[in-house]
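In keeping with the milestone schedule agreed at the kick-off meeting, the structural modelling team has produced records for the first pair of proteins. Each record is given below as a sequence line and a C-alpha cell line. The laboratory manager (R.T.) confirmed that both were archived under the project's standard naming scheme.
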Amino acid sequence: MSKVFNVNGACHPDLHYMVDLTPRLTKIKAMTDTGKFFSINKARQYGKTTTLRALAEFLQDSYTVLGLDFQNIESDEFEDGSSFVHALAREINKKIRRLTDIPEEILQRFTKLADKTIPKTRMAELFACFSDWCRQSDKPLILIIDEVDSAANNQVFLDFLAQLRAAYLDRYETPTFQSVILAGVYDIRSIKSKLRTDSEHLENSPWNIAADFLVDMSFSVNDIAGMLNSYEDDLHTGMDIKHISQLIYDSTSGYPYLVSRLCSLMDEWLPGIEPFSDQKSTWTEAGFYEAEKIIIKEDNALYQSLIQKLKYYPELRTMLYDLLFTGKPIPYVATNSYIKDAAMFGFIKNVNDSAVITNRIFETVLYNYFVSEEFASSKMYRAGVQEKNQFITGGHLDIQRILVKFAETFDFLYGDQDETFLEEAGRRYFILFLKPIINGIGNYSVESRTRNNERMDLVIYYQGEQYVVELKLWRGNAYHERGEEQLSSYLEYFHLTKGYMLSFNFNKKKEIGVKEIKIGNKTLIEAVV
C-alpha cells in the first residue's frame, strides 16, 4: 500500500508521509525525565494526537505509558464523582489489558473501580490505586490524556485536576506518576474552579503546577523538505524540493494540517486536471498556487471552527478585523484575555511583541469571510461585478484598468466622506471591488512584512501570473517617494518588472488619476483616489 499525505486523524509513519518527529519527541522526553507535569495546548488540527501517539511509542523503553482520550467518556459520565471514576477506570482497563507486567492486584482494583453497580466510588480510591501501581511498577508511569478540554466545563474534571495537583505536590512522600501530559486546545492552567463560590477557588487554577511547554510543533522549511524527500524517493517527480518547501512554509507558517492539505492537493487532486497532467506537473510553482487557491476556497472543519469562534468572542472579532483592514499595530500582551484567546485558537502569533495573523492562508480566509458579509449591501462589490468583464484581456488581468475604474468608482461613491472613514475603509473597498473580478480563477494575499496602518502590499495571483499592488495612505511627497522605492525592492523579490500603487490621498487639492513612474528598470503604475 502506497503512502499518502494524511489530513484525517492521527498520522502513522507506515501509512503516511510525515515530518521527522524525533527532535520534538526528544525534547518532550527530557521534560518527562525531569518529572514535569505539563499541558500541550495547540489549535485544532495541529498534530497533537499524532505527537502523543508517537511519544507513547518513543517512551515505552523507559516508561510504562498510560494513554487515554477523554472523548471516550460521555458527557453524562461527568455528572458526579462516582460516574467519572467508573468511566475513567473502564477506559484504563481497556488500555492496561494490552500492557505487560501489570500487577494482578492492580488489574483487579481497576476492574472493581469500573463496576457501576458499586455506588459511592470516590476519586480518592482511584488515586490510591494509581499510587499503589506506581509503587509496584518496574518502570515509572507516564499518564497522557488527549482531548482533555472536552471535559473542562465539569466540576468533577476540576476535582480530578486538583487530585493530580495534590499528587504532584506530595510526590516525594507518596508514589505517583513520573509525568502527566494533558493535551487539548484550551489552556487547562486558565480553567478556574468556577463552579464553586469560594473566592480563592475562583482565582486559583487546579493545574497551576504545570510546567511551560516550549516545544515548537509547527513544521519548519527543513521539516517539510524532509517529508517531501521521502515522497520524492517514491514518486520521482523531479520537483525542486527546496523551492516547493519554502512556498508551502511561506503560505502556512508550518501549520501541520495546512502543510499536509496542500501536499495532499498536489499529490491527489490536481493530477489530471488541466493543465496538470500528472504529479510531475503539479509539484511546481504553478501547481502550488493552484493548490493554495483550492485550500483557501474550501469549507473544512478547521475553518468552521475558526469562524465559529468569531461569533462567540466579539472582542476577538474586532481585534482581527482591525488587524486585517486598518493595519493598526496590536501589541502581543500575553495577559490580555482576547490576545490569549486569539493565540490559543490559532488566529495569531507573536512576532517581535506584535500580534500578527498566524499564516497567509488563515489571513486570506479571514479577509474573504469579512468581505463576504458585505457582498449583499456593498455598492463597491456590485460595481466590481458589473465591471468585471472589461478587466480580462487575452486571459491576462489588466491591473491598470482595475485601478482606473476603482479610483473613479471610489471617488463617485465615497469622495465626500471624512478622512477617518476613508482611512479605515479604503483597503476593504478595494478588496470588495477586486473580489468578483478574480473570483473563481484568481486569488490574493496580503504581504505581512509590509502591512501596517499606512502601507499594505496585496499580491494577486491570476492564471499563473503575479501582480503586486501597494495600497498606501498619502503622507506627503517624501514619504511617498520612499514608498515607491520600497515597492521597487519588493518587485525585485518577486522577480517582476512592473508594479502597481493605489494611494489614498485626502488632500482636497489632490489630482485623481493614473500615472506611470520609472525607477531604474522597474515600472510603477500609480492610481490616486
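The second protein of the pair:
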Amino acid sequence: MINQIQLTSIFTEKPNNFAWFLGAGTSRSSGLPTATDVIWDLKRRYYCQQENQDISRQDIQNEAVKARIQSFMDAKGFPPLWAEEEYSTYFEKIFGDDKERQRNYLKAFLSEERLSLSVGNRVLGALLSSELSRVIFTTNFDSVIEKALAEVGDQSISAYHLEGSHAANQALNNEEFPLYCKLHGDFRYDSLKNLSTDLATQNEELSKCLVNAANRYGFIVTGYSGRDKSVMQLFHRVLDTENPFPHGLYWTGIKGSEINPLVDDLLSKAHEKNINAEYVEIETFDALMLRLWRNIESKPEELDKKVRKSQLTSVNIEMSSAGNRKPLIRLNALPILSIPEKCQSLGFKQPKEWGDLRKASFDTEHNLIFTKSDTVWCWGKEDYLKTTFNGELTSIDSRDIPTNIQAPNNLFVKGFLEEALCVALARDKPLLSRTRYKKSYLIIDPHAIDIGNIEPLSDVTENTDGELKDLIFQTTPDADEQQVGWAESVRISIDQKDGKYWLLLEPDLWIWPPQARKLARDFIDKRRSDRFNNKYNEILDAWVKIIIGTEERNTTVTVTAFDDGTDIENPKFEIGSRTAFSRGANS
C-alpha cells in the first residue's frame, strides 16, 4: 500500500504513462447515482409494485425504510444485501430482457439535469484536453466525461461502446486520442450490460482494447469497487500477457473502507509478476484529482482556471446600456448568422465504423463529411455515396441538425459542423483543411501556386511555411524518415452563447507530420514569443481577411463546403465579417 503523496509523485512525473479506469464513484460526485443507488431504487420499485406501497426516492434514504424493504426481499429469496448478483437480479425482475425499458429507465435516472460537474471531473476534462491523459475505460453509462471535456476543453468526444466496439482497438493502435471506452454500453444506445447473462462476460473487442492498452500504460483505477467478476477476470487476463501494466497498477479506495477480496487477490497476483501494484487510500475522488492537478507543472492557464472554478453556471445579468468609450478588448469571434439545418442520414446493410468512413472521405478527396449518431450522418453528393459504398447503402434520408450544439448529447454535432465549416472556408483558397483529435484547422498550403490570398498574413509574419532542417521524424520504426515541416494555421471552432453561434479563430502553427509536434516545441515557442497584443491583433486581422475573402467591414459572406448540391448534400454557412468586441459602459 502507498499513500496519495506517493501516487501523486508517480503520476505527475509522466502523466502520459497512465490510462484511467473509472467506476460509478467518479460520477457520484457530480450528482449522479452509483450502482448501489440504482439497486436501492430498483428494490423500492419492486417492493411498491408487490405491496401496493407509495415510497419515494427520498424516503429510501431513511434507514428504517431500507430495513423494511430489505426484510421483504430476504423473505422472498432475493440475494442478500451486498451480494454480487443484486444488480442484475433486480434488473431482471423489473424489466425482464426488455433493453428499451432498461435504457429508458437509466436515461431518466442518469438525467443530465442531475449532473453538475465536480472538480474531479473537470480535472479529467483538463487532462484529456491537454493530452496529459489519453485513454479512459469505464463501466459507467453516463455522459460525465463528455460534458467535462466539452465544458473544460471545448472539445467533443465519442465513446466506443458495445455498438461499434471492434473499432476501439484499431483506434488505440492508430493513436486516435483521446480514447474513451464504455465497457457496459451507453444508455443512449440499444446495447447495455445489466442482466446476469450480459455481465457474465465482457465484450471481446472492447476487452482486446483494454488488454492492448494495459500492455502500453499503467492503470489508475478510481471510483470502482471491483464487484464485477467479468471486469476483474479481464484484469487477470492482462496479467497473463507479456508486458502487463508496464507503469504499474494503482487501485484507489476511500480511507477506512474494506478492500474487496477480488481487488486484493488481483494486486497480490500482480506483485508475483513483479508489477508495481498498490492499493491507495484517498479521502475522495475530487480530493485526489485536485491533488494530482495541482502538482502537474506547466499547466495551461486557461484550463487551470476552468478546473478551479467551483461550478459552471448559466446566469442572466441585465446588460448595461451601450457606452461611448472606445473599444477595450477585441475578441477572436465572428458571428455565424446561419448554420446548416439538415444533413443526410445513411442506412447500411452492415454497420460502418470510423475507419470505413475516414477511408470513404479520403477516397473522395474529402468530398464526403461524416459523423455518427444512431445512424451515420453525412454531407456530400449522393452520387459520391452510391459510387463509394457500391451497393452497401440501404437508405439516404434527410435529418434535422439540432440547434443546441452545447448539449452533451449533441457534442458530436459541434465537431461535424466545425469540420464542414473548415472545408467551406478553405475552398478556392491556398488553404488545407485538417481535423485532428476532434479539432479542425485551416493551414497554409505550402504547395499552393497562387498565394495572393495569404498576403495579409505573410505581410505580418514574413514567411508562412518552411522546414525545420535539424528535425527528422519517423512515424514508426519501419517507416521512412520525414523532414519536419511547419505552416501557419488557425483553429476553427464553433461556440454557442445565448442561442447565437460564433466562429472562434485561434491562430496556431501546424507541424508535419503532426506526431512530431512535441519535437518542434522549441521552434513553436520561439516563433510565438513576440505575438503580443499588437502583432496578435494583426495576425487575427489577416486570418479574417483570408477566410472571409474581403476587407470590407460589417458585411456578410456565404460559404459552402462543395461547389453544388442540395440542402442536405452541401452545408451552407453565413458569417459576419466584424469580430466581436467589448466596450466600456457610460460613466
